Amino acid sequence: MTKRVVLIGHPVAHSLSGAMQQGAFDALGIDARYEPWDRTALELPDAIADVRGDDDILGANLTVPHKERVVPLIDRLTEDAQLTGAVNTLTREGRRLVGHNTDVQGFATALDRLVGRQKMPRQAVVLGAGGGARAVVFTLIREGFQRIVVFNRHLHRAESLVKHFGRSAAHMDLRAMPWHESIIESELAKTRVVVNATSIGLGGDESPVSGAIIPAGLLVLDLIYSRTRFLRDAEAAGSTVMDGETMLLHQGAAAFSLWTGQPAPLELMANALSGARAHGLRSAEGELAGPEPELAPAEEAAASTAG
Ligand code: NDP
């Protein structure tokens, strides 16, 4: 009987993760199908009940906008999921569902590649406070960052995030700030790492901030898997940039191992991502994935992973 892994999000459309995961199942001779389920927030509890009740479903991915909302619907959380308060991967233990957060591994790998041989910086600005931002902030705290400022359109969400990490961040300065360009500008001038964890730039050529306020010499990571305006502006200002491909690949590889118990075929998955992107598909996270004129650093990193 063909097993299934489902991707639950809204929207999910055509999925780069589908190409990456299906390619890996097929290459390893695993009889499984990766299936997108477009479910709204209202439909999420039923979708989770459907996963729980069907033994042929090996597990699932959760994407925008469900990563936090799904937490109370899950039977057990792994440590990373519990500590971030967000779930992007489900596995099953019989009729019980286990929530994992493989975005943490994905972001940690991306950050490591972005920083390269330099000393790990200690200050970061995070734009956004959703499910993805939680994996980002958790990883930055674990990496020893001493000051992290989180900006979000709805300030209360950034404040909840800060409160959630209260204990693990007790030794350092983690704070939420209101989304005003002048305040963001002043924080960018004091920081080393900037992460866009908003979905601004996902559907159109918009940036969360004006290019004029981005200083030179930053390390800039956009979770969106394309060469966004934000990344182009940051690069033009003299910063080192990386898009969301490395994170997408490594969170996917970790999820694959959880579902199958086998090491992920990383090179094959990287090639499947590039191939799907060249055909204009969207990623599991919904990012536009049209062909790019040249390789972004993150793509080079993924290509070297693949090498
Ligand atoms: P959520 O829906 O949980 O959060 C969305 C975030 O974007 C919130 O901070 C929200 O702010 C902000 N936002 C959305 N629209 C606007 C807007 N018009 N103006 C200002 N802020 C806005 O999504 P996720 O956290 O799961 O994902 C966020 C982004 O990260 C997506 O682009 C996703 O594709 C990407 N991602 C990529 C991954 C990868 O592997 N490369 C992994 C995880 C995420 P507010 O709270 O005020 O609404």
Topology of this protein?
Layout (H helix, E strand, L loop, with lengths): L2 E7 L6 H12 L4 E7 L5 H10 L3 E6 L13 E2 L1 H6 L4 E5 L2 E5 L2 H13 L7 E5 L3 H12 L4 E6 L2 H10 L8 E6 L2 H8 L4 E4 L22 E4 L6 H8 L3 E3 L2 H16 L5 H13 L18 H10 L1
Helix pairs in contact: 1-9, 1-10, 4-5, 4-9, 9-10, 10-11
The structure holds NADPH dihydro-nicotinamide-adenine-dinucleotide phosphate.
Strand segment count: 12
The number of helical elements comes to 11
Percent strand equals: 15-25%
The residue ranges in which pLDDT falls below 50 over 5 or more consecutive positions are 286-307
Q: Globular, elongated, flat, extended or rod-shaped: what is the shape?
A: globular
Q: Report the bound ligands by name, code or SMILES.
A: NADPH dihydro-nicotinamide-adenine-dinucleotide phosphate
Largest sheet: 6 strands, mixed
| Widest sheet, order of strands | 2-1-3-5-6-4
Q: What multimeric state do the chains show?
A: single chain
**Averaged pLDDT, please?**
91
- Could you estimate the helical fraction of the residues in percent? 25-40%
> Could you give the distance between the termini?
35 Å
The secondary-structure class comes to alpha/beta
Question: What order do the SSEs take from the amino end to the carboxyl end, as H and E?
Answer: EHEHEEHEEHEHEHEHEEHEHHH
**Taking Cα atoms only, what radius of gyration do you get, to the nearest Å?**
18 Å
